[in-house]
Write a structure and sequence with these properties.
Blueprint (H helix, E strand, L loop, with lengths): L11 E8 L3 H8 L10 E9 L3 E9 L5 H10 L4 E6 L2 E7 L5 E3 L20 E6 L4 E4 L5 E2 L8
Antiparallel strand pairs: 1-3, 1-4, 2-3, 4-5, 6-7, 7-8, 8-9
Bound molecules: adenosine-5'-triphosphate, magnesium ion and zinc ion.
């Protein structure tokens, strides 16, 4: 049976199939506090999923995601799907995927890295390993496999 766990939205973005317990991190990435006051954000935690067992869902009215936010979600919640809703219909649906290079999303944990010295150098990582994801800073080669605390 088709069901919606929360109120439908007219325009906005649905981030579904988020790994159980990760919705709050996704909200942090979305910076929902910056949304206009008429936009509703719905969060469903611990929803039964045939694919994942349990999952979280986030629905945000009147927001479409920047590539930077999509990349950050791909790091934290690699199973997520992103659907764009326009006029109450799903106009576009895709899985998130990790690009080969991730610029401006994370800061480098190495305090001596040039990206942490007030120089006009944007942080940038390449993918060192995909499963599980490990990134490598292109400037200092530091390997990173924990992302939450490094999100910009
Ligand atoms: N008007 C709407 N408002 C809010 N959420 C919606 C709306 N229409 C669809 N959704 C949600 O968007 C997502 C994609 O919709 P779709 O109908 O493709 O889902 P589905 O059939 O459950 O597919 P799947 O779970 O395999 O991605 C689902 O999470 C669905 O609940
Ligand atoms: Mg579904
Ligand atoms: Zn570095």
């Amino acid at each position: 049976m088709r069901e919606l766990k929360v109120t439908p939205i007219k325009n906005g973005t649905v981030i579904d199939h988020i790994g159980n317990g990760l919705a709050l991190e996704v909200l942090r990435i979305l910076e929902v506090h910056e949304l206009d006051k008429d936009s509703t954000v719905s969060v469903a935690l611990h929803v039964r999923s045939s694919k994942l067992g349990w999952k979280d869902i986030v629905k945000v009215e009147n927001m479409e995601l920047s590539p930077r936010k999509v990349n950050a979600i791909a790091l934290i919640a690699p199973t997520a799907t992103i659907s764009i809703i326009r006029d109450s219909k799903v106009r576009e649906k895709r899985s998130v995927s990790l690009p080969d290079r991730i610029a401006g999303v994370l800061r480098c944990p190495n305090p001596n890295c040039i990206t942490n010295h007030g120089e006009p150098v944007e942080s940038e990582f390449d993918v060192y390993r995909r499963r599980p994801v490990t990134l490598r800073c292109i400037y200092c080669e530091r390997l990173v496999d924990e992302f939450l605390k490094l999100l910009r």
